[in-house]
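Q: Joint fold for the lines below.
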Amino acid sequence: MIDLFVIKVGGNVIDNPALLDEFLGNFAAIKGKKILIHGGGKIATRLGDKLGIESKYVNGRRITDGATIDLVTMVYGGLVNKQLVAKLQANRCNAIGMTGADANIIPAAKRPVKEIDYGFVGDITTEDIQATQLKALLEAGLTPVFAPLTHDGHGQMLNTNADTIASSLATALSKFYTVRLIYCFEKKGVLHSPDDENSVITLIDRMIYEELKADNVLTDGILPKLENAFAAIESGVAEVLIGHADDVQSNTTDTVAGTLIR
Amino acid sequence: MIDLFVIKVGGNVIDNPALLDEFLGNFAAIKGKKILIHGGGKIATRLGDKLGIESKYVNGRRITDGATIDLVTMVYGGLVNKQLVAKLQANRCNAIGMTGADANIIPAAKRPVKEIDYGFVGDITTEDIQATQLKALLEAGLTPVFAPLTHDGHGQMLNTNADTIASSLATALSKFYTVRLIYCFEKKGVLHSPDDENSVITLIDRMIYEELKADNVLTDGILPKLENAFAAIESGVAEVLIGHADDVQSNTTDTVAGTLIR
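A: Joint structure:
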């Protein structure tokens, strides 16, 4: 019996006020213990443009220099996080906004400089997550809402991928709870036919996954998501679900609209 | 016996990196339960200038329009708050950054429009503070760090004076703890001679206060601080202390460097 939902909502929902309001209403209505992790969206890039902070990418990955970590700390940890918290409170969900620095929940290590210097980017070791402290907040009736930020334990904030934070928290909390990790994105789930939203594959286990791969059903975009899902399950997460942000509520029930992986 | 310190640090400390680092080291070393409330400093004004968000004042009081509440939510609730938390964590203080929206600790009401429309400014009713929830965080070994922000319960963040948040939290927590409320500013305390930093008045009670007023010892700047201090004491706060940020540690002991009001 699932008794904790760890839910990641992507930047495309954050960037769309109508979609976001609907999502937050649905999220607030989910019964039982839950955690929300939010992506950043495009607000930081837009604000950075106004401030003359250039968005730099190497091989498609963002470089977080000193000005950028301040920017994302403001935007993700301040503006976006507090707007989500205030709106969840309005929906009678007792949200508490956090970064990985708060209560030291997610200590991280600045990514070592090899060929590329990613700057102030934090890599998480799941064993370092302060799961007992996070459990205390959940048991106090609170719903933690995480911005995609961590810290190095020496006073420096770090930028960390929201998907990674979600799977790391889900894994760390699996020692206390039976966790369903839910990734909300803009499609209904893993599709049999990429263009047909009604072709959602309801259940994928290892055997079905190997068959789908062999049949070339899976697109390049979905393969890493599924690999990450199986990695989470092998680390103790009970179930992973990939589905549309609109379906978040039904995706916490037994009759899911998205793709359940276990 | 004091068992909770509620400490407010002003914007002049926030704006001075060397002073701030020293203050945070001293704050982290304070034994026992403690809460920090931080002012905003000038970072929001500087960032607002860059973004073309004008700082508007009427009768010396800031007007918080829509662009300004987003700005201070970013800067106070994100950048400043998380930098304080990360630095306290580096000093082995298990800080958790918050606004009044988080865990619904400080619900507020948007100030009614009379002669002046202050915009998104929140007024607190002490009875509405969720003191039990805040106590649970303290009992879990956490040190809450509050940005000067509240919310209206309907999804809107509000700007609230940090001194007011400090005295309101101290008052609300007085039903559980014996509280010393400490205001850290740039002077050693209430001075007998305004120009002599060694003329700190160590103890002020109602009787001494009336004498000092009658003797015209008190400057215009210190009078409202003392009035607020006595108001807090009359609402249940055990002691109020006014002192220098550098002296925060000794000001939590019995041999204070600043001015103790009780």
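Q: Anything notable?
A: Chain A has a mean pLDDT of 94. The helical segments of chain A are 11-14, 17-28, 43-51, 66-90, 131-139, 162-173, 206-214, 222-234.
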